[in-house]
Structures
1.
Amino acid sequence: MSSLQHMGKSTLRVVKNYTKGYSDVQSKVRDATSNDPWGPSGTQMNELAQMTYNQNDFVEIMEMLDKRLNDKGKNWRHVFKSLTVLDYLLHAGSENVVIYFRDNLYIIKTLKEFQFVDEYGKDQGANVRQKAKDITNLLMDESRLREERRTRASMRDRLSRGGNPD
Amino acid sequence: FPTRPVDRDKAETELSLNIKKATSPEETAPKQKHVRKCIVYTWDYHSSVSIWTGLRVQPILSDEVQTFKALIMVHKILQEGHPVTLKEGQNQTGWLETCARTVGNDGQRGYGQLIRTYVSFILSKLRFHRHRPEFNGLFEYEEYISLKNIDDPNEGYETISDLMNLQDQIDSFQKLIFAHFRNSNNNECRISSLVPLVKESYNIYRFITSMLRALFRRTGDAEALEPLKQRYNSQHYALRKFYYECSNLKYLTGLINVPKLGQDPPNLTDNGAAPELP
């Protein structure tokens, strides 16, 4: 695909964000989980993770992720990237993300059989299936998730205190 | 009640469309996206009533492929739907029996025997779950342990032999499915019925392995347990063969990871954990 086409797509997304009346927060989720062939950036995911600590933003993020996770096969990138973002949020976002997706685990679990074969006969569903499996296992393993969240938090702590030994 | 952003009216309308599309007359697998919508529906609303009603109003019984696809769908929804689905499924035995009765002796496209065997398997499954509501539809070990909170061998013997009966039924059903493959056309529809069988048989296998180990540990009475051990071993070899044959079906391995069992059955007197998930 040419970069011009992607430029066209991202322009279209900006227009949609505006005409459909998506909020700032929702547009951020839409950008991070778009159909562009590259993954969501660390900066994007980190920003979303921080926003989950605000209750209103949290609700909006969950709403948009839910939409993206339930998208159709042709938009497998929406689904795949939403899982990528979710994985990040489970590690670095607020506890509410964990609670919400434990409650709604079946949304993820049922993606373990996601199917999509593209026009070249390539099985694009495989990525989604693997990621859905990984996240399901993580959500079902309370102690592992705790541990990984703790490690992530202390790492972030150390990095942010880096140049400032108080 | 769902914490997800949903709209019930819309969900109901979509549901009947999903049921219709999942059980279309094309001789293919029931599309997973439609089956998934049904499963998600049961979790959103803690009910499967609309699904059973939907199945009754669709004209599926006049066509053997549609009937077979409906059974695959029912099996998957019983496995992965909200637990209430297993309870509400208990009232559907009449409809299931009708499915088995309506199809002609062998059907025009050879689904007759498959349908009757599938129905009798689903009925056994429902009976099992009626007696043992602590198991979820897919026999997931993690959930059982978290529910029971312990790894209690005392209820062991009888549960194990009931699980083994189901396992035997799965085994004869899968053999029948393989025997009904046709050389001339693609077997996608038949193969797709193996997907829930692979999952269910493997989870039952994991279960039996850990329950038997617990029994051996607790009672130490190898002699009393010998018959179960014999049966366990022969089921191990049967499963191993089943998975081996499945691993040669490209369509199937694209959908799920088929487990690979060791050459010999695991040692039951070990303290090993349950076999890993594939």
2.
Amino acid sequence: MLMFTFVTKNSSSRHASRLLTCGGPCTVSIMSVFMDLNLIQNQTEDRSGLKSLIETAAHLGFSTVAVNYVFEPTTKKKQNIPSPTPINELIDQLPIVQGRSRPIRVLNRLTIVMSDSSHYRPTAAEYRRFDLLAVYPTTEKLFHAACMTYDVDIICISVTEKLPFFFKRAPVNGAIERGVAFEVSYSAAIRDATMRRYTIANAIALVDTCKGKNVIVSSAAEKRLELRGPHDAANLSLLFGLSDADAKEAVSSTCRSVVLHAERRKSAGGIIHTTKTSPEETPPTPDDRDAPAAKRAKPLETE
Amino acid sequence: MVRIKSRHLLCEINVTDRNCLLLLDDRAVLAAVKDTVLRMHGDYGAARCSIGFSVKYLNAHTGIVFLRFPKNCYKLLWSALPFITSIESRGHKISCFFNCLHVGGTIRTCQKFLIRYNTQQLHRMLPKCKNEEEKQEIRQAILNCSLLRGKKEAFEEASESEEDEEE
């Protein structure tokens, strides 16, 4: 269980990281920064749309976002898996996150919409170009396989249609044990009233089965007006049946463990893991200099 | 005697075009929130927000709004806020979204938070300036609000003056 050993770099930054306990295999997890792991890359629109999305996410206080490329294979003809556009081509300068003094981190994510088991190829070289890998199973058999065997990070839950199958305890527990997270996205619920019913019903069915563990809440926003702030998203997920602590983790520390899981998947099961360290990337005390606004001025730390 | 407790939500209204914000008034915001609560939670929610819910403060220049909710059901009513997509005001439909910045027990803590938040916004704005005049203006604004902090003056005025500079 290498991915559950969270190490904080500077334990002196008390305001930035609050301790909170959660049940399960990870006894103590760090309340980390907010993440939104699903921003839809709109193919028809030019890149200014994505740019304004990322800027809005930084303004709202998300420290990490993932640009989602949806790949829907059909049986008729062979399609190419989209290749991610490097983020420095999209935006020349990444915006600074609200309340922190560092630029926003942008990841690339691939979502495979699966209706047949041949759609997921475990050893495809195209998958290696993405930071995160997600599947969207549409049948019960594929859901079972995705939970138990597929080497992915996120399993998406349908939010736009009636639940195509019932969630069973066995595959869901298997996925939790392997560290695979389930994703509920809320922007369909904002757009339309019937979608809202499907989203809430499916999310409650999932949360009942997994008891609130390993659930992440993401936006799936295409326009900047569909994004919501991290506190709003956490409070919104109370409607999905999550408890207070689980709702907060759904936008922060579960997302962090998903990102760590993705790194472990890419680096030979986490046995060997190298990190690139360069002096300009790790400033000495990055969090303390520009802490989030509080109602009272915090005294400066003297060390 | 136990007093009635409430929660104050400090929200920021985000729009694409900042000029639309000037069309807002507190009655429009109140109507939008009540309408959304009715849509999301039905008659129960509407009844819950009929007593003890009010819009305490609205700044149309910056889009800052203080909402007051009863303490025992503020989470229920807050969960309806993300579903607001537009506000109907003076015949115009302003598409926007609410971003909750702070939840406080009193207005005073919200004001304190807002002052710090707006100061931070000024600091963030400084590197983005294009010409020297804007830069000088923002420097002056930061200086003004850092001088004010030492005195225990009415917070209302302090926050107002900062926000005007930000515009």
